[in-house]
Amino acid sequence: MKLFFITSNPGKVREAAKFFEPLKIEVIQLKREYPEIQADSLEEVVKFGIEWLKKEIDSPFFIEDSGLFIESLNGFPGVYSSYVYKTIGLDGILKLMEGIEDRKAYFKSVIGYYDGDVHIFSGVTWGRIANEKRGEGGFGYDPIFIPEGSEKTFAEMTTEEKNSLSHRGKALKAFFDWLKENI
Ligand SMILES: O=c1[nH]c(=O)c2ncn([C@@H]3O[C@H](COP(=O)(O)OP(=O)(O)OP(=O)(O)O)[C@@H](O)[C@H]3O)c2[nH]1
Ligand SMILES: [Mg+2]
């Protein structure tokens, strides 16, 4: 089976491909721009994206929207994670967190699959914001996020290790469990 993943982010594709590889599902990246609305939730962003894309794409496809929610910053950058990453970046986040003791944060991933109907799957991983950047792997905020129960940042893990703990790994698992029952 082949799954089309509409995203501009090669890191997301790498993680999805690694997840589906042993399950004999091939992930094919399609780069199509779609509007990411300023909504309160990742679910709304995904649903709007699907409504926009479904007119353009003939076969079933999925998209994913994710974000980092920092508790002491009232959930910032959240749905704006992509914009904040491109503007103030990791150093900006570390600066905002200077002197803040409560470093709790979670990552959330929402996958939307369209096969004529819209199916939504999500995953959440709690952890904390590191005091400094560590690791070369992963992408995005990975060098500053330490998942609960680990001492390593996501960027210090292999793709398999990150998938076994991450928000995206959990959302992909929920997606796969649904596919098993419905395909
Ligand atoms: O450390 C991280 N570990 C992750 O596992 C992760 N997943 C997402 N992000 C970051 O959060 C924003 C999401 O925005 P996003 O969902 O719109 O993605 P994107 O714009 O990169 O790609 P896409 O929208 O074309 O799929 C982007 O800045 C990503 O870098 C992550 N950071
Ligand atoms: Mg995006």
Automatic annotation (TrEMBL):
Substrate binds at residues 7-12, 66, 139-142, 162, 167-168. It holds the Pfam family Ham1p_like. GO terms for cellular component: cytoplasm. Keywords: Hydrolase, Magnesium, Metal-binding, Nucleotide metabolism, Nucleotide-binding. GO terms for molecular function: dITP diphosphatase activity; ITP diphosphatase activity; metal ion binding; nucleotide binding; ribonucleoside triphosphate phosphatase activity; XTP diphosphatase activity. Its EC number is 3.6.1.66. One of its GO terms (biological process) is purine nucleoside triphosphate catabolic process. InterPro entries: dITP/XTP_pyrophosphatase, ITPase-like_fam, RdgB/HAM1. It comes from the Archaea. The active site is at residue 65. Its cofactor is Mg(2+). It catalyses: ITP + H2O = IMP + diphosphate + H(+); dITP + H2O = dIMP + diphosphate + H(+); XTP + H2O = XMP + diphosphate + H(+). It is an enzyme of class 3 (hydrolase). Mg(2+) binds at residues 36, 65. Belongs to the HAM1 NTPase family. This is dITP/XTP pyrophosphatase. The lineage of its organism: Archaea, Methanobacteriati, Methanobacteriota, Thermococci, Thermococcales.
